[in-house]
Structures are given as structure tokens and as C-alpha cells.
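Take a careful look at the protein record below. Let me know whether the C-alpha cells fit the sequence:
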Amino acid sequence: MSNRSVLHTRLESLADAKFLAKALRTGLAARGIDIPHGHALDLVAAQFGARDWNVLAAQVPEERPAGPISFRTTAPVLRIFDEGKALDFYVGFLGFTLDWEHRFEPGLPLYAQVSRAGLVLHLSGHHGDGTPGTAVFVAMEGIDAYNAELLAKQNPNMRPGVETLPWGRHMEVIDPFGNRIRFCEQRGGG
């Protein structure tokens, strides 16, 4: 699991980090040790594995107004049957980053997260996690640039094109397990 993923499970907002810095200053002051607020912020950042407060502030999710419902990230789970083929396709061909991988113990199926430019996908070798042939619709910008990037890789098994449809410009890729990702640059931004 990446440091950023671990960080998000421990720290929900910058307000929480600021609260911790204030508590640190108060606790130290009670022991006769006075430190500037900025130093306290840097010490809290170090506790979360960040070099300093500015790095931590860039990694923590934005504070959102309180509301009854808030969704942050959608991560479709795609079934895979061969880890090497899956990573070759998602990381090698599509240009995603392998964020983390998990196994309950050696020899058991892989469960992994890949991401690129805000798109997060989960890949699973576990029976019951996703169905082969799943279709995922991804609204995006820059479809022509992405298409050119993929075509430049000269993959003999995948040469996607861009098609103009009533709802936008569309490019579909099919992974080695029959899962379809439909990238679409929608008309009117929506």
C-alpha cells in the first residue's frame, strides 16, 4: 500500500492535523517547552511520514462541507485470471501506476489497485470479485492524446480507434479477460 493510501486511512482532513499540532504545542507548553506553531505543524507532518507541513497538506484530502452524503472515488473491480497479463495491460499498455497489491497469504489470488489521472481501478483474481466481460464507462478529457499514446506502443493485440457517437468521442479497450473500458470525451463536458 502506498504511503498516500495509508495516510488517508489515518488522517481525514487538514483540520485534524491542525488540531494535533495545537494539542502538541499545548502539551509541550505545559512542560515548559515553547515551540512555534509552524514547528508543531512540521512535527505532526513527520508523524504521518511527510517531509514537512507543505508536503502533508498536498497529500491530505480536501476538506469538504458536511453533508448527508459524500462520494469520493469510484473503483470498479475488474476480474483478472493472469497477474502478468493484467499488469502488462494496465501498467504497461494503458500507462496506469500500480498503487498497491494485496494477498491474504503467498500463493493466494492478487487484489490490486491501479490508477492514472484520477481514474482508479481494482483488479482481482478472487472468485466472486467482478465478472469477466464487465464494461466500465470513463468520462475523460484528452481522448485524442490518449489514443495517440496507445497507438504509439504498437501493441499487436490492441489498436483502439476513436469513434464519434451522439454523446461524445469514444475509444474502447478490451483487457485480456474481456473487460471493456469505454473512454469517452463527452460533448458539452458532461
About this structure: The longest strand covers residues 168-174.
